[in-house]
Amino acid sequence: MRLELDIEPLDLAQTLGCGQTFRWKPREDGSWVGPLDGQLVTLRQSGPRLLVEAVPGGRGVGELVETHLRKRDDVEKVRKALSKDPVLAPGLGRFSGLRIVKLEEWECLCSFALATYANIPRISKMIETLAGRFGKKITGNVHAFPTIERMKSVSSVELSECGLGYRAQYIHDMSQMLDRDRIDRFKRLGYEELRSELMELPGVGDKVADCVALFGFGQLEAFPIDVWMKRALERLYGKTGSYGKLRAFAQARFGPCAGYAQEYLYYNERAHASKGACAFS
Q1: CA torsion angle 238 242 246 247 (round to 10)
Q2: What are the two backbone dihedrals, phi and then psi, of residue 51, each rounded to the nearest 5 degrees?
Q3: Domain ranges, residue 239
Q4: How many domains does the chain have?
Q5: Which residues pair with 238 in a beta bridge?
Q6: What are the backbone angles phi and psi of residue 53, rounded to the nearest 5°?
Q7: Residue 100 is assigned to a structural domain of this protein
Q8: Is the whole-model pTM more than 0.85?
């Protein structure tokens, strides 16, 4: 099926290619394709319109894409709030189309648990392996991410055969500890309480908890800190120290827009490292 949506501002390359999600792939024609909740979705921008193709399609596809791209976020309001920061203010216009994504909570938790000490190609390969072995087929060789219910029946031996390394035990143990009721309860928690409960799970430390809080549960005050963010905070703000110290600085500096500030800084820092054009220097 095909449909058109109005989601503005939006830059697909910035939004889908900056480490928030691992299953979207760019095509030479500028479109992006990826599995989304049992659909194989292709997104293409045409002026102000977002063109969507979905297989197998059906009712609800438009809402699915709008939810994933957080259509309801007032990105202009976010930029206005962050423009009070003198470091960010000069270059915010460069990121007007970068949006935070909303991932399914269980898939998000597994994805970022797999992301520890791994680069994006390796993370993507591990996720695709799990989907291919245990997820429901969508079309061709594309599979949905396996549900928590399915993963409960997967043994640690089977997971160890998926090339996940030590992360296999994390995924196995999390699938045994969690269920839909508990994840639904997580949705009702505030950021700090959610973060604390996530960190009780195997394989979930500070960074994974913040990534899952931000991209899975939509807690926009979360500010995940990895090596790129440490570099950005030191280079642009002169801040160094522990994860807790840097997180406290970011929360005080950016407030409820911290998640968006993090994505802008992350994208910019990677451009800086590759000697690309920077918005914040």
Answers
A1: 170
A2: -90, 130
A3: 74-93+218-281
A4: 3
A5: none
A6: -120, 140
A7: no
A8: yes
